[in-house]
Design a protein that fits this description.
about 300 residues; alpha+beta; 4 strands; about 10% strand
């Protein structure tokens, strides 16, 4: 972080809770069955403490994605241990199996299915850019359909409400509002740095990048898409980072699709959920010594 630059905070929703993170510390707050809020912290390696090569543009996005995945698994583990009854908790083996199945589902839905479906259009539109664009549009359609389907599940809707609470707290903090439920509740549940926007950038960038690799056989296409994912993620990270700081018309235009998609990935939280999200951010701010400047 450059001198004078204000640190950016973010996070994710977990089971009955919220994880917040800053440059050097993360905290996950979870509502327990007894209604108490449990808080756990984890120290992080700040960006300035990484080797210079890992702070290069695009490369830092790959590092950030890996750290986010690792931190997300830790936060989910903590939330499951605190919010679920002992007989409902996942063992280490069950957690690993769940993650493997989740990765397999993601590869099948967002790598294999779109390129296989687009292959059926090859005779109609050829094997050039338009075929790759069609694959990208199919991938977007699958993403939207998947999100629309899972939001019908009651447990997922609660997670999405915590996602909305996370955004409200970050928006309130960045506006200098008091970190209290009444004030935070008035903030927007949409935020330009959301992972939803990141996913959409990945999908759109993939259509452009993959067009340079032609249209080989199905298995080779899938292999190329998986191998290129770190580069695409790094580029998407740079776009997200720039658009969240810029106020130019281009950045507003780039942010709009992700903000619209957040209508599916967030819900309005209740006061109890706002309290959990506030406690998570306070846990980060307390450790970082970065108290909010309330206006």
């Amino acid at each position: 972080m450059r001198p004078g630059e204000v640190p950016q905070y973010g996070g994710q929703a977990v089971i009955e809770g919220v994880m917040m993170r800053g440059p050097s510390v993360a905290a996950v707050a979870v509502r327990r069955r007894d209604a108490a809020i449990h808080l756990e912290r984890r120290r992080l390696t700040p960006p300035g403490g990484r080797p210079a090569g890992l702070r290069l543009p695009v490369v830092r996005g790959v590092v950030a994605l890996w750290e986010a995945l690792s931190l997300g698994v830790w936060a989910l583990w903590q939330s499951a241990n605190q919010s679920l009854e002992e007989d409902e908790r996942l063992s280490t083996g069950e957690m690993v199996l769940t993650l493997v199945l989740a990765v397999a589902l993601a590869v099948g839905l967002f790598a294999l299915a779109p390129t296989a479906a687009a292959g059926g259009l090859k005779r109609l539109i050829g094997a050039g850019f338009w075929l790759h664009l069609a694959e990208g549009l199919i991938r977007v359609a699958i993403l939207i359909a998947y999100l629309a389907a899972i939001t019908r599940l009651p447990d997922i809707r609660r997670v999405l409400a915590y996602h909305g609470a996370e955004h409200k707290v970050i928006n309130a903090y960045e506006a200098g509002w008091a970190l209290e439920p009444d004030a935070v509740g008035r903030a927007s549940r949409f935020h330009p740095r959301c992972g939803t926007s990141f996913l959409l950038y990945v999908v759109l960038l993939s259509a452009l990048l993959f067009s340079f690799f032609g249209w080989p056989g199905l298995l080779f296409r899938v292999a190329i898409r998986l191998a290129a994912l770190p580069v695409i993620a790094g580029l998407a990270y740079e776009i997200l980072k720039w658009s969240s700081r810029s106020r130019s018309p281009v950045s507003v235009w780039l942010a709009w699709p992700g903000l619209w998609l957040q209508r599916l990935t967030t819900r309005e939280p209740d006061e109890a959920q706002l309290e959990v999200a506030i406690r998570a951010l306070e846990g980060v701010l307390e450790e970082a010594g970065d108290a909010p400047a309330v206006r």
